[in-house]
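[Automated response] Your request has been received and processed.

Submitted sequence:
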Amino acid sequence: MNNQITNFRRSLKFWLALKQGDNSLANQILKAIENSGAKLSPVEKLYQDKLKFQESLNDKDKKISNLIKGKILKGSQIG
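Generated structure:
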């Protein structure tokens, strides 16, 4: 019973952090929920997917930037 109450409180704090736009706090709470082994709510799963997608997008942006920089450097060396 205590675990259910604790999980409910975490989920409520997570939801309130998102509602207030406090992504940093939401990230911390999500990590605590994940570490506790509790089943994620649909909103928590969706937010987790968003974070994974955002990380993947950032990685791809870095790769694209590095490719562009490499082409610019090669182009400036030729001319």
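Summary generated for your ticket: The longest helix spans residues 42-78. The mean pLDDT is 92.
If you did not submit this request, please reply to this message.
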